[in-house]
Design goal:
Number of helices: 6
Oligomer: single chain
Distance between the termini: 40 Å
Mean pLDDT: 93
Strand content: 25-35%
Strand order of the largest sheet: 1-2-8-4-5
Order of helices and strands: HHEEEEEEEEEHEEEEEEEEEHHH
Helix content: 10-25%
Structural class: alpha+beta
């Protein structure tokens, strides 16, 4: 059967989910199978969009195809490229807080992060008064609005990052290869189909194995219920720093994360599952940006990671997850961050929170107001996905 290679990969993928080291109960498996479904969808999508001569941007991840502790505030797009070809990227800058470009050599694998060959944000390019821009990527030297595709360049990744979900608007973007005008792709053949199903299966297995290994490299060796000082994001953008950690909390235990509101244009915190994907950020407040969060009079933002409702505006919902990941990101930086820019962590029982949380009386929020925050999240994500 033509699909035998994919069918075999699906069976192997299910076993990877079953054997994942963090699986302890049926709920872990339910989430694993949900993660598997999204990974299958994404792998098929990527295999069929693997076009370097007539490229186009596709959405890399989203609410139903998550991977790599996806940032709820970011729209991710990618296109495949050849390192010996010239590409023109045109678009119109939206009003999102950050727009960045990154050229990757290779792909994520269970043993390494792909090389970031070029990374920059829109401050490095000319954008006209209407927000329009044209960028070129290709071999040879860089120049005005031109960036080098070094040897091994394989993928161009574009990120649009929101801070105020309700007001910021996404932009537009397209890509074409120079010399493709007047030409069309060759008709698909049976060998093409066989290859695509085989590639989709390989992508699926690599994706699952990689992002089960990834937290071991950067998270799980850290002491539990702590967060690191800000550091450059591994494999990430040159203007992005992050603070990472993992938590393990009892039902009545909460983690208070205190961090200064940064001068960075984007600052956000999120929770993730042990499958290394974001928690449900549409129907629950599992992430907050500096614009969405309440800032205390002393200039700090205090987040409360809790299973039970603590009655405060900056509650990050665990949604039944005793264990998980925490990440803070700062983007579009104009300076390096130091320890003073990073978070402090304090643990307490939920009934102790009024004494532990500074400015507690000012931070409280009622059930109706919190429900309104959730409705605003749903509306903003819906508008973003249709934009």
């Amino acid at each position: 059967m033509l699909t035998d290679s994919l069918a075999g990969a699906l069976r192997e993928a299910e076993q990877i989910i079953k054997d994942a080291p963090h699986v302890r109960d049926e709920q872990d498996l339910v989430e694993g199978y949900d993660y598997l479904a999204g990974s299958i969808k994404a792998s098929l999508h990527m295999a069929w969009a693997h076009e370097r001569d007539f490229p186009f941007f596709v959405q890399s991840t989203g609410p139903y195809a998550k991977m790599g502790l996806d940032n709820p505030d970011t729209l991710y797009f990618h296109s495949y490229v050849r390192d010996d070809s010239e590409y023109v990227v045109t678009g119109r800058r939206g009003t999102t807080r950050d727009l960045s470009f990154q050229v990757l050599g290779g792909d994520y694998s269970p043993v390494e992060v792909p090389d970031s060959l070029t990374a920059f944000d829109d401050r490095a390019i000319r954008v006209d008064d209407d927000g329009r821009y044209e960028i070129r990527f290709g071999p040879g030297p860089a120049g005005d609005n031109r960036f080098t595709l070094g040897p091994g360049s394989a993928m161009l990744v574009v990120r649009e990052v929101y801070s105020d979900w309700a007001t910021e608007q996404r932009g537009t973007i397209r890509i074409r290869r120079v010399g493709s005008a007047g030409r069309v792709p060759a008709p698909l053949s049976m060998p093409d189909m066989e290859k695509r199903y085989r590639v989709a299966g390989k992508m699926l297995l690599s994706r699952l194995r990689t992002f089960l290994e990834f937290p071991k490299w950067f998270y799980l060796e850290l002491p539990v219920n702590t967060l690191t000082e800000p550091r450059r994001t591994p494999g990430g953008l040159s203007t992005q720093f992050s603070s990472v950690g993992h938590y393990d909390l009892d039902y009545d235990q909460v983690m208070v994360v205190t961090v200064p509101k940064s001068d960075a244009p984007y600052q956000g915190i999120q929770l993730g599952t042990m499958w290394y994907v974001s928690l449900d950020y549409i129907n629950h407040q599992t992430s907050l940006t500096a614009d969405q969060a309440r800032v205390d009079p002393d200039g700090n933002i205090r987040f409360v990671i809790s299973e039970r409702d603590p009655g405060v505006a900056n509650w990050l919902e665990r949604t039944g997850h005793r264990r998980g990941y925490v990440q803070i990101r700062w983007q579009r930086l104009s300076r390096d961050l130091g320890p003073g820019d990073g978070p402090a962590v304090e643990l307490c029982r939920i009934d102790e929170l009024p004494k532990v949380l500074a400015f507690y009386d000012q931070a409280t929020i009622g059930p109706d107001d919190f429900a309104a925050r959730i409705e605003a999240r749903r509306a903003a994500v819906g508008a973003r996905m249709l934009g």
